[in-house]
Recover the amino acids of this structure.
């Protein structure tokens, strides 16, 4: 299982050991994203939501675990004020995470 993880993550073809056939199945790894980044660094704070959305769109079951300063991000006033550099606003990413039904643990 460990050998195939990087290959599945990068989209490489699966290689089975000699004499064994690999069963064709879609890669569905369970993903847990942990973050403690708060509003002091808006770009880092928004990454868990953007990355979780990407994993969910790829078909992986994903969950977000926020701790420390990151817990404040769930307040609507804080979420609407965070705009990361080069990414859509956090409020949009959070709304998309809700659409994907991604559990957020605090």
């Amino acid at each position: 299982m460990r050998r195939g993880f990087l290959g599945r993550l990068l989209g490489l073809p699966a290689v089975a050991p000699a004499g064994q056939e690999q069963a064709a199945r879609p890669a569905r790894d369970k993903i847990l994203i942990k973050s403690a980044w708060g509003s002091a660094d808006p770009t880092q704070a928004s990454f868990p939501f953007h990355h979780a959305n990407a994993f969910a769109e790829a078909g992986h079951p994903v969950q977000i675990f926020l701790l420390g300063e990151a817990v404040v991000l769930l307040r609507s006033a804080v979420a609407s004020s965070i705009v990361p550099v080069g990414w859509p606003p956090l409020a949009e990413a959070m709304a998309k995470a809700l659409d994907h039904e991604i559990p957020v643990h605090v």
